[in-house]
Amino acid sequence: MLDFLREYHGALGPLVSQFEGTLDQFSGDGIMVFFNDPVPIPDPAARAVNMAVAMREAAGTLIADWRERGRDLGFGAGIAQGYATFGQIGFSERSATPRSARCAMSPPVFVLRPRTAKFCSVNA
Hints:
By secondary structure, the chain is of the alpha+beta class.
């Protein structure tokens, strides 16, 4: 499993920088990327869509190789755009920073989960 994740993150991770996204976290096979936060960039929604398309293409090569090794995995991308309120959530014994809590998302947000998604759906 760790070899799979290293291969996946190694192929798709560099695309975050290429499209000027901010990598928030890897969560297993999920990648959360912010655009236009913390530094404003031109056309953040277009960058998110273009990165999703580039990742789908890069993942296509990986998926073919994984199938040859008996792993039937897919790729999916989701893009959300909107406003969020930032702040600490939880209680004194257990709390999370807003980004790792996944409920405070800066626009637009991009999340990948190839394990659970069979088709790539890109909506801006």
